[in-house]
Design brief:
Largest sheet: 6 strands, mixed
CATH superfamily of the largest domain: inorganic pyrophosphatase (n-terminal core)
CATH topology of the largest domain: inorganic pyrophosphatase (n-terminal core)
Bound molecules: adenosine monophosphate
Low-confidence stretches: none
Mean pLDDT: 96
CATH class of the largest domain: Alpha Beta
Strand order of the largest sheet: 6-7-8-9-11-10
Order of helices and strands: HEHEEEEHHHHHEEHHEEHEEH
Distance between the termini: 40 Å
Helix content: 25-40%
Number of strands: 11
Structural class: alpha/beta
Shape: globular
CATH architecture of the largest domain: Alpha-Beta Complex
Length: about 325
C-alpha cells in the first residue's frame, strides 16, 4: 500500500540528520521543481536538519529558479539520499548518490529498473511534483509548505502536464494543484518566466517552422545539424527543445526531433505523439520512455531514415484503422 510507503518515507526523513536530494540529468521543470520544492519544504519543517540539493547539471531556461549546493564526500556519511523524478539509476544527476546510507526513490515513470531502499513509484501521476504535493497533503499537520516551495511544486505540475493538458491529468491532479495554489503561488510571475522568450529564440522558431518535414502519413520531423546548432548558438539541450514546435500540425500524430551530436557520434531523438504510442518505436532504437513522450539514439543518417520510415508506417497503420484523429 502506498500509504504505508509514504509513512515509511516520513519516518526515514524524521530519523536522519542529513538529507541529500537529487533528480535526473538534463532536468526539466518537474525535476527541478520537485527537488527544490521538497528541499524547501524539508528545510522549513526541520530547521535543525541539514538538507542539500545536489546535482551535476542544470537547465538554462529554468535558471530563474536559483542555484544549488555542493557538498564534500563526508556529507554522505550516514545521510539519507532522496532521488526524485528519475526512472533509472544511470539518469541520476549525482554520481555520488550511492555513498549515502539509504536511498529513497520517488518517481512517476514506469518502474522498469527499480532502485533504492524504499521506492515510491506511481506511474499514473502526471508529475513527480504531484507526488511531492500529495506527500505534503498526506502529512499536512506535520509539514510546512511555504509560498516558495509551493511555487516550485506548482511549476513542475504545470510544465510536466503540458499546462494540465496531457493524458495523465486526473481530477486528483487538479484537486492537488488547487491545494498547492492556495499555499500562495505567484502565478503571474511564474507564467511570465515560462513564456517570455529571447528574440533569438523567435528566430530559431522561425527556422524550425521553415524546415519541418512531413512524411506521406503525417510524421513531422526536423533534423538539427551541428551547423544549425552553431548558427543559433544552441546547447544540445536547447536544440532538443525544438521538438515542442512540431506538436500542433493537423494530421501529424507523431513528431520527431533529431539532434546531431557529432562529438559522441550519435543523433539524439526525441519522440512525441498523440493518440498512439511511440515507446516501442523508441525501444527499437536504443531508447525508451513514456507511451507518448520517449527518447532514443541513432548512430547514422541511414538509421535516422529507418526510424522515420518506421514511424511513418506506424502512423499509416493507425490512421487506416482509427477514425476521429485530427
Ligand atoms: P526526452 O525526449 O528526453 O524528454 O524524453 C522523454 C521521455 O523518454 C522521458 O521520460 C525520458 O525518461 C525517456 N527517455 C529519453 N531518452 C531515453 C533513453 N535513451 N532510454 C530510455 N528512456 C529515455
Amino acid at each position: 500500500m502506498n500509504e504505508d510507503i509514504k509513512k515509511k518515507i516520513l519516518q526515514k526523513i524524521e530519523s536522519y540528520k542529513t538529507i541529500i536530494v537529487s533528480r535526473h540529468i538534463r532536468p526539466d521543470g518537474d525535476a527541478i521543481g520537485s527537488t527544490k520544492g521538497l528541499v524547501k519544504l524539508l528545510r522549513d519543517t526541520y530547521p535543525d536538519k541539514k538538507v542539500y540539493l545536489v546535482n551535476e547539471d542544470y537547465s538554462d531556461y529554468l535558471a530563474f529558479l536559483g542555484g544549488e549546493d555542493t557538498v564534500t564526500d563526508e556529507v554522505y556519511n550516514g545521510a539519507l539520499q532522496i532521488v526524485l523524478d528519475t526512472g533509472t539509476e544511470d539518469r541520476i544527476s549525482n554520481r555520488n548518490f550511492k555513498k549515502a546510507k539509504e536511498i529513497i526513490k520517488i518517481d512517476h515513470h514506469i518502474d522498469d529498473k527499480p532502485y533504492g531502499d524504499i521506492s515510491w513509484v506511481e506511474d499514473f501521476r502526471s508529475s513527480a511534483c504531484e507526488m511531492v504535493a500529495d506527500f505534503y497533503l498526506t502529512f499536512k499537520n506535520k509539514l510546512k509548505m511555504s509560498p516558495e516551495a509551493a511555487t516550485y511544486i506548482y511549476l513542475g505540475m504545470v510544465t510536466d502536464s503540458g499546462r494540465f493538458r496531457y493524458e495523465g491529468v486526473t481530477g486528483d491532479t487538479m484537486r492537488i494543484a488547487g491545494a498547492i495554489l492556495d499555499c500562495g503561488v505567484n502565478t503571474e510571475k511564474l507564467f511570465a518566466n515560462l513564456y517570455v522568450d529571447e528574440f533569438e529564440t523567435l528566430k530559431l522558431k522561425s527556422y524550425v517552422y521553415d524546415n519541418i518535414k512531413i512524411t506521406p502519413n503525417g510524421v513531422a520531423y526536423i533534423y538539427m545539424s551541428e551547423a544549425v546548432q552553431k548558427k543559433f548558438n544552441l546547447t544540445l539541450e536547447a536544440a532538443s527543445d525544438v521538438v515542442s514546435e512540431l506538436s500542433a500540425i493537423r494530421g501529424s500524430l507523431i513528431w520527431l526531433a533529431f539532434i546531431d551530436n557529432k562529438a559522441k557520434g550519435q543523433i539524439r531523438v526525441r519522440l512525441r505523439s498523440r493518440f498512439l504510442g511511440v515507446k516501442d518505436l523508441a525501444n527499437k532504437y536504443h531508447g525508451g520512455g513514456h507511451s507518448m513522450a520517449a527518447g532514443a539514439t541513432v548512430y547514422s543518417e541511414e538509421e535516422m531514415q529507418s526510424l522515420i520510415n518506421d514511424a511513418d508506417k506506424l502512423l499509416g497503420e493507425y490512421k487506416a484503422t482509427h477514425g476521429g484523429w485530427l
